[in-house]
Amino acid sequence: MAEEEQKHHHHFFHHHKDESPSEVDPKKEEKHHKHKEHLGELGALAAGAYALHEKHQAKKDPENAHKHKVSEEIAATVAVGSAGFAFHEHHEKKEAKKHACE
């Protein structure tokens, strides 16, 4: 009866000690970084467009101009961060390509 009352615990992280890290295909890794680079570029473009939209709304709606200016600044910050991520992934892609040629 005591065995039936014991609860099974679920773990979020499974550690398999006997598994060794497998080799990653260099072409796959390069493609992965290229895909992430494009996502970063798309994010920068979308956030930049939204920042411009909010800037226009601030001029168009003077009653809520402060709200629109805050949203514009946040969108501009997101655009810069996303562009930085795209730049980072571009360098990761170049590094993966270099390792693929070796």
From TrEMBL:
InterPro entries: ABA_WDS. Residues 1-36 are annotated as: Disordered. Residues 16-29 have a biased composition (Basic and acidic residues). It comes from the Eukaryota. Belongs to the abscisic acid and water stress-induced protein family. This is ABA/WDS induced protein. It comes from Musa troglodytarum.
